[in-house]
């Protein structure tokens, strides 16, 4: 680890420079502060920008290391590495945080750094490593009370993560004793809350409830945002116990207290990946859910509407989408189908908007990853140049000093070559691993983007079917169609984030979709779904929404234009011991004639849809080793009809 520390030191010196102002002052000999003071100034500046600007914060930490020079003070170097670890930890880069904390401990051991390293391990779900780091601290005498509380709290967190409930409770309670003795009030609330969490994890709800009540009372004396956070946590516990009345009462108190807090100060951020932030729109949504759980739909509706309005004003699309969907379901439960349908259309629109935003976020994440990758490649290149320059210098110096000691010189040359080969091998290994990880990340981003394009396309095509009945004023058929369509949509949206779903579930969705289309065009085609008895559908998985576009094309572009009644057949049959064949055939007008009837816009839309499917299959096959094959051909020699064959393989 000592060599790692020196590499890190020179890496930072090589990859960045002191600010322009600092360089000018150094050259002029007019630096107003000693080196140690300047080092602290840079660390203070890094701390200011730690939350808001990660790149600027890292630059200040880099400068703090640069001003130390090659013979850096161990304690000062450790302080810089700890600051760097805290930046990465705040931005959820736990692996990088752990690396820097370890290097900081290598440079200078301290209890504070050890506690930070343990917290990073816990946040990274490395509970055994956290236990290993923390246990030696129990033997240290003279720890300040606050550090004793943190030590016991972190050990409790580690053992709770390891499902060792009794040990976790023992350390939490020991920390509680120290906090009470030394009147560390904030930790009293935190530890009571964590003890309650542990009891709840062990299904001891009575004990959990008692400690949650204590934590609620203790947070009343703390800052308001901490009190609101604890109320919401306890309300979630009441929800798990089905104590909806107590849950609603507590959440209403949270709503009233939120109004007294400054905007943007509603949630304590223990971790930046805490998505369930405490906001009025989310609390209103949870209150509505509690009423719905009691079948009190009329009481739930105002809270859902308030949640939607607040989320709209705060541009919180996720909560707005969820609340709108729930409101549609409430109207459906009440039998108010027009309002249910109208609200569901708003939900669909929000889903589409959310998908667009997700695509933008994915694009931004990809750009950020590329920038980080470029920085890392540049740092690696500078480090290799520094090492090469250092090797040349050492070799020249060795040749001058060892002219008469040829044997010793030869040994040094051999050692240098071996060292260089090891460095090159390590560099090649890490470069390969980085490329593989980047490739996997890019595949996941691309796959998520393609799925987000498929689902809105399917939803809007299906809504055309609903509109057809409404246009015909066939209320009964429209209600039936809408009910079946809602069932299909719920299933589709639930599976939209999965790479693969069970084949049985895909076939159920497929049969429901074909049934809906057949109800629209009963005079255009009949259909049949045949599953060979030899096929164990539970043993296979298939990408969701993969078969539907081909069946949609068969109905809309093949069978619909046929003069007489056509036939659509879906056959699932075995192919060898580890594969099955899914064959979709129709005796429609065929691909060539269908293409002649299409408008330019229809051709463009089809091309885009089929292109998305091909990209999905290509990415999935790359990730899962050629699991799906697709081929399309004419059914007859005269070009009429179409046959699509899917070959699906087991894992």
Automatic annotation (TrEMBL):
Enzyme class: transferase
Record keywords: Kinase, Membrane, TPR repeat, Transferase, Transmembrane, Transmembrane helix
One GO CC term on file: membrane
Protein's name according to its UniProt entry: Two-component system-Sensor histidine kinase
Organism of provenance: Zobellia galactanivorans (strain DSM 12802 / CCUG 47099 / CIP 106680 / NCIMB 13871 / Dsij)
Domain of life (superkingdom): Bacteria
TPR repeats: 78-111, 281-314
Known EC number: 2.7.13.3
PROSITE patterns reported in the protein's UniProt record: TPR
Signal peptide span: none
A GO term, aspect molecular function: phosphorelay sensor kinase activity
Transmembrane regions: 412-432
Domain Signal transduction histidine kinase internal region positions: 447-525
